[in-house]
Each structure stands twice: as structure tokens, then as C-alpha cells.
Amino acid sequence: MAGGSSNGRSLEQTPTWAVAVVCFVLVLISIIIEHIIHLIGKWLKKRNKRALYEALEKIKSELMLLGFISLLLTVGQSLISDICIPEKVANTWHPCNEDPPEPGENDGSGTDEGNHDRRRLLMVSDFGKSVRRSLAAAGSTNSSCPTGKVPFVSSDGIHQLHILIFVLAVSHVLYCILTMALGRLKMRSWKRWEEETKTIEYQFSHDPERFRFARETSFGRRHLSFWTKTPILMWIVCFFRQFVRSVPKVDYLTLRHGFIMAHLAPQSHVNFDFQKYINRSLEEDFKVVVGISPPIWFFAVFSLLFNRHGFHSYMWLPFIPLIIILLVGTKLQVIITKMGLRIQERGEVVKGVPVVQPGDDLFWFNRPRLLLYLINFVLFQNAFQLAFLVWTLYEFGRDSCFHKRTEDLVIRITMG
Predict the structure, then answer these.
(1) Of 133, 147, 352, 408, which cross-links 208 as Cys (Cβ 3.0–4.6 Å)?
(2) How does strand 149-151 pair with strand 130-133?
(3) pTM here?
(4) Where are the domains of the chain?
């Protein structure tokens, strides 16, 4: 799509069979993808996976939104590239231009070629058999802008934005699927614990008529210690616990018993499958996690804005999702510990299994769903970081200014 290309033929100069073949392939691929999504939806309905079906519909709406953005870019490409801005403004906030030319430096003298070299954003140079691609020019050679001005965004830049949107859509869908798969894999080990609750040994060890000290129960030994008396120590211990085993067996069984006591009859613990209930809850929460809200879109634009040279965004931007997810994991551990402290506050002696009492006041701002929104934010930001990495490698190559430092690639990959 570069302007001034010798191969820039219009459709009136293109064979009709070539146009028909391209249209046929695009339509065929679109129909196949739509049919696959339709089959997945029918399969989910057949298995009564209502929440997952709604999540699939939300993914389809997000893909439609990305497609609509791409369509607007296509329709408005000429309008955007016809907008002219002064070179002084165009020479600011470049992602890779380490030494932009000073205003008035391009005065038509013999240094014009050197200034153009510093100003261009897309350069292809051959070193033997390898081709290195770096960042594109602010304007194309056939720009309609007058002297001293350049296009707001060139046609090449808009075309590259198309590719970024496509890669973002693919990476977001893959991250959604990966998130769901990891959630189900995590809960697979809980199935064994759920089967154990139906055995005679479990019913004997959890005799409801048995009196014990709260601190001597398995749940008490895990969560009632000297470090729980100091909030700072509690947060430090809970921070490291999320790396060892986020949901141990004793926590699962205690939370299961607390849920039954709060919502069901005490005799229901034999037939109630808490693991299946959590599985259905995961599907319900997945509808929230896969969505892309306006604040998340604005943060993506913020990430693009501050991806300029000198801000070192690769050193701090990928760490924002990491910090958030570590805070969420620590907060969940703190919540379970505080529920254990509430058991001790009600009395030193407990009858049967300790009964935990969850409450909205244990969460930030009394809003449990805030944790879901934070996980949603992390999911999209991980997808965005991966898409940006793949896009820059594809468009500009390994040796571009985006990847001058090896730590840039390491940070983007490992943090995601």
C-alpha cells in the first residue's frame, strides 16, 4: 500500500479473474470461521453450557468491534493521510528516532538527504541475504502535502495498524481460551478432594459433634499463627503463599463446608458437588473476563502513546499487569486468612468443622467483582503485549529499534 509504488494498479487495470479469486478466498475463509463458531455455539447449547455460550457471543461482539475499527481505517485512509501537519510537530514523540532533526534544519540545502534519513520510519536495507526492516516514514514520496508539512498518518502506517488490529484479535481469543483451559486444569485436582468427602474416613474425621480448639484444626494450623496478628506480616506471608499452592486441600474442604452451612442443609454435604458448582461459577465469571470495556481500550491507547523513545516503556509497561495479578493473588490469600481469624474471634473452641463466613467487606471497596475486572484488565493487557511483540517482529524485524535490547524481548515474553 506504499504510495508511489510502480505496482499501484487500480481495479480497472487489474484482471477480473484476479479480483474474483481474492474475493472468493476471503469470503470462503470468513464463511468457514463463522461456521466453526456456529458449531461451537450449538455444541455449548447442547451441553447446557449457557454461560460459555454467552462468553462466546461476547467474543464474537469483540471481534466485530475490532473488524469495525479496521473498516473505519480502510474507509478513512485517504482522509487521514490527506491531513497535513507541520514537520516540527511530526518530528516529536517518535518511537525510535533517537535524534530528530531540529525545526528549520531541512532548508533545501545539501543536508536535506541526511535529514530525510533521520525522519523516515520505514527503511529496508540488504546485508547479503538478510533484509532488515526498521520504522516507516512519516509521509510517502507522493504526498499531497505542501513543502514543510507531512501527512498526519501515512498510508503505510494505516496499513500497519490494520495488521496490528488483526494480531490483537487473534492473541485476545487465544488468551481467553488459555485462561479457560488453565482454570479447568486447576480444578481437575479438586475432583479427587470432592470424591473424598463421600468416604467414611472423611465423615469420621469431620464428626460434627466433636469439639476442638480452633487453633488445633487443620485450617487453624495453616492460618492462625503469630504472623496473622500483624497486618504487614500477614500480607508478606500471603504474598509468597500464592506461589506455593494457592488452593490447598484444607482450604478447599473448609470453604466447601462453609458454603454448605450458609446456603444448604447440613445433611446436603454428602450429595452436594462443590467442585461442579465452582466449575459453573468459573463459566459465569468467564463472561466478565473475556469482555473489553472502554477503560481497557483507553489504556491500550495510552500504551501506544507512551511507546516513544526515551520513556523506556518496555521496562515498566509489561510490569503493570504482573503487579496487578500479584496483588489479586495476595488479596485472595488475605481474605481466606481473615476468615480464619473470624473463627477464632467467635471462640477458641469450635464444634465439628470450622465454619468460615465470607463477606463483601473482606474485598476492596466491598466489591468482590472488582477482582474480576482486574483479571479482565490483565488478560487484555497480556494479549496486547503479545500482539505488539508479534506485530513489531513481523513488520520491522528482529533488528528494529523496538528490539535493540535483548531484555526488551525477554521482559515482554516472560511478563505475559
Answers:
(1) 352
(2) unpaired
(3) 0.71
(4) 16-48, 183-415
Q: Closest by alpha carbon to 242, among 380, 337, 372?
A: 337
Closest CA to 256 of 338, 358, 364: 358
Residue 98 to residue 401: CA distance in whole angstroms: 10
Helix 319-346 vs helix 406-415: crossing angle, to nearest 10: 40
Q: Please report, for residues 43, 198, 253, 270, the alpha-carbon distance to residue 211 in angstroms, rounded to integers and kept in the order given.
A: 50, 22, 18, 21
For 32, the enclosing helix (H) or strand (E) is helix 16-46
CA atoms within a 13 Å half-sphere pointing along the CA-CB vector of 334 = 19
Convert the pLDDT of each residue in 88-121 to its tens digit: 887 777 777 655 444 444 444 344 444 444 334 3
Question: pLDDT class for 43, splitting at 50, 70, 90?
Answer: confident
Segment 141-199, tens digit of pLDDT: 456 778 888 888 888 888 888 888 888 888 888 888 888 888 888 888 888 888 888 77
DSSP H/E element including 86? strand 84-86
Res 269 pLDDT > 70: no
Amino acid (1-letter code) at residue 344: Q
Measured CA to CA in angstroms, residue 60 lies from 56, 217, 293 at distances of 6, 48, 14
The amino acid present at 213, given as its one-letter code, is F
What 3 state SS string does 120-184 have? CCCCEEEECCEEEECCCCCCCCCCCCCCCEEECCCHHHHHHHHHHHHHHHHHHHHHHHHHHHHHH
